[in-house]
Amino acid sequence: MKYIVPGFPIQRMRRLRENPTVREMVRENHLRPEDLIYPLFVVPGENVNNPVSSMPGVSQLSIDLLVKEAVDAVKAGVKAVEIFGIPPEKDGFGSGAYDPNGIVQEAVRAVRKACPDLYIITDVCLCQFTDHGHCGIVEGHRVLNDPTLAYLGRAAVSHAQAGADMVAPSDMMDGRVSAIRAALDEAGFNHIPIMSYSAKYASAFYGPFREAAESTPQWGDRRSYQMDPGNSNEALRETALDIQEGCDIIMVKPGLSYMDIIYRLKQDFGMPVAVYNVSGEYAMVKAAAANGWIDEKKTVLEILLSFKRSGADMIITYHAKDVVRWLAE
């Protein structure tokens, strides 16, 4: 304890709990619409709405329906989205990721036109675009780090050219922040921030996302480049490197099982911290709520507030559209 306070009956903690107004006045952490980022999945075609079976309420959307969803989200009070793309064709070099007319780039242009004030973040990775499902260029069954970096830089630049406000590299290749920063700066986009997935774990909670993004590895797993769930000091080293390379926001992914990491990164670096409330966490809440085991609204708000309490400044969550409506009630 930093200080000693008098005990009962002089101190009665319930004095500041019995009235809802004073509870709000002394609340230490708050959840706001500005804290939330809404992930969206875009696919080729027109009038395409493919529900993700493991994520009730989430769909892959063609660009026309993605625009409608973005407009609806803005009306609800959402301030920012993150766009993930699934291309019509995949190859060994993930060429759709950096195609100026690729699915993400076209989606960014369309959403920007319809929602000029919406903050658009794009995922920068190759896994959705490669035929092997890994986040980098491969040789045999080995993911090559350094040859991948130039492709990530090209993807980031193409997103900025399309109108993205921020890029978010999620690949976990060593040196990718530096490569992306250099590519953006050289192309005249030194004002575009980088939100780095700086502490991304090789987690079991990603299963539903891989269905949504069609990015399941065709062989092996991602443990050679994503972090081992048993490590915490490694997260500090990873994050320190990303900061040195020029990232503007650091991220922890997943959220619920890694709130100690959120806290440590905030305390050690004082940087803006994002957390990804990932697909598996979302799916568990939805399944329990559908069975009547929990109150979905109260549970979601408690989870997101716990991220804020741990030190997160912003939260990427599939619940975002519902939450902004709940907060407005």
Automatic annotation (TrEMBL):
Its EC number is 4.2.1.24. Pathway: Porphyrin-containing compound metabolism; protoporphyrin-IX biosynthesis; coproporphyrinogen-III from 5-aminolevulinate: step 1/4. Pfam families: ALAD. The gene is hemB. 5-aminolevulinate 2 binds at S279, Y318. Zn(2+) binds at C125, C127, C135. The lineage of its organism: Bacteria, Bacillati, Bacillota, Clostridia, Eubacteriales. Keywords: Heme biosynthesis, Lyase, Magnesium, Metal-binding, Porphyrin biosynthesis, Zinc. It is an enzyme of class 4 (lyase). Homooctamer. Catalyzes an early step in the biosynthesis of tetrapyrroles. Binds two molecules of 5-aminolevulinate per subunit, each at a distinct site, and catalyzes their condensation to form porphobilinogen. It catalyses: 2 5-aminolevulinate = porphobilinogen + 2 H2O + H(+). This is Delta-aminolevulinic acid dehydratase. NCBIfam families: PRK09283.1 (NF006762). The keyword Ribonucleoprotein does not apply. One of its GO terms (biological process) is protoporphyrinogen IX biosynthetic process. Coiled coil: none annotated. Belongs to the ALAD family. SMART domains: ALAD. The active site is at K200 (schiff-base intermediate with substrate), K253 (schiff-base intermediate with substrate). GO terms for molecular function: porphobilinogen synthase activity; zinc ion binding. The keyword ATP-binding does not apply. Mg(2+) binds at E238. GO terms for cellular component: cytosol.
